[in-house]
Amino acid sequence: MTAETATQAGTDAEAPAGTQTEDQVDTASQTVADDGAVVENVATGADADGAVDEASEEADDLEGSDDDDVDEDDEDDEDDEDDEDRLVEEGEIAGDYLEQLLDVLDFDGDIDLDVDGDRAVVSIDGGDDLTKLVGRKGEVLDALQELTRLAVQQATGERSRLMLDISRWRADRRDRLARLGREVAERVLSSGEREALDPMTPFERKIVHDAVAVVDGVVSESEGAEPKRRVVVLPA
C-alpha cells in the first residue's frame, strides 16, 4: 500500500492524530464488519459528501496606488500558498489514518492524495475488498469520510472538507449524474415541459445543476425539503 501526497486540514483537536485515530480505526472496522453496515451514530449530516460546494466570494475591488496593488498581489500569492500547504497537510494526515485503517482490516489498496480547488481529495483504489468500504449507495463510504475528517480535525484543530473516494465510486457517480443532467436538459428543451429528478444529496444536486447550466434554453432549481429535496429542470 502506498501513500502519495498532495492534500488538506480539519477542526477542534486536542491530541495528535496518531494515538487517537487508532480508536477511530477500531470504530471504522466495526462500520464495515460483516456486510459493511454503517454505524448509526456516525454523523454524516449536511456535511457528508462535502455538502454543496458554495460559490467562492468575489474579492473586494482593490483601490490605491500601483505599489499598493503589487503589495496586495503578493499577499494573495502568499495566501494561496498557505491554503495549498494546509490542504497538503490535511491529505497527509488523512492518508496516514486510512493506511492504518486498511492495515487493521487487512485490505489492500493504493492511497492517492490530491487537491481539488479548496479541498483535499483522498482516493483508495486497487484492492478486491474495497467495495465493502463503499456499501449500499455509498453509505459506508460517507461514514468513513466523516471519520477521516474527524481524524484530520483532531490533528489540526480546524474543520475539514476533505473528500474521500474509494474504487472510483464518487468519480463514476459524478460522471453518471452529469450525463443525466445533460440528457434531462435536452429533453426539457425539446418538449418544453418541466421534469423533476429523484431526490439527491446536496453534492449530487450541484453536479446536476452544473450540467444543466451548460445547455442554453433551460434552467434548474431545487425544491422540497431534505432528504426529499430534488432537482427540477424547466424551460428558461
Descriptive overview:
The strands form two sheets. A three-stranded mixed sheet has the order 1-2-3, sandwiched between helices. The chain is 46% helix and 15% strand. The protein is an alpha+beta fold. Helix 3 (139-156) links the parallel strand 2 (119-125) and strand 3 (163-166). It is globular, with a radius of gyration of 20 Å. It has helices at 17-31, 66-105, 139-156, 169-191, 202-213; strands spanning 110-116, 119-125, 163-166, 195-199, 218-223, 230-235.
Which segments are poorly predicted (pLDDT under 50) over 5 or more consecutive residues? 1-22, 33-70
Roughly what is the average pLDDT, rounded to an integer? 77
Helix and strand pattern: HHEEHEHEHEE
Task: Record the strand order, biggest sheet.
Answer: 1-2-3
Q: Structural class of the helices, strands and pairings?
A: alpha+beta
Assembly of the depicted chains: single chain
Helix share, percent: 40-55%
Shape: globular
Number of strands: 6
For the sheet with most strands, the description reads: 3 strands, mixed
Measured distance between first and last alpha carbons: 50 Å
Count of runs of 4 or more consecutive helical residues: 5
Strand content: 5-15%
Question: Over the alpha carbons, how many angstroms does the gyration radius reach?
Answer: 20 Å
Helices and strands in order:
Blueprint: H1 17-31, H2 66-105, E1 110-116, E2 119-125, H3 139-156, E3 163-166, H4 169-191, E4 195-199, H5 202-213, E5 218-223, E6 230-235
Parallel strand pairs: 2-3
Antiparallel strand pairs: 1-2, 4-6, 5-6
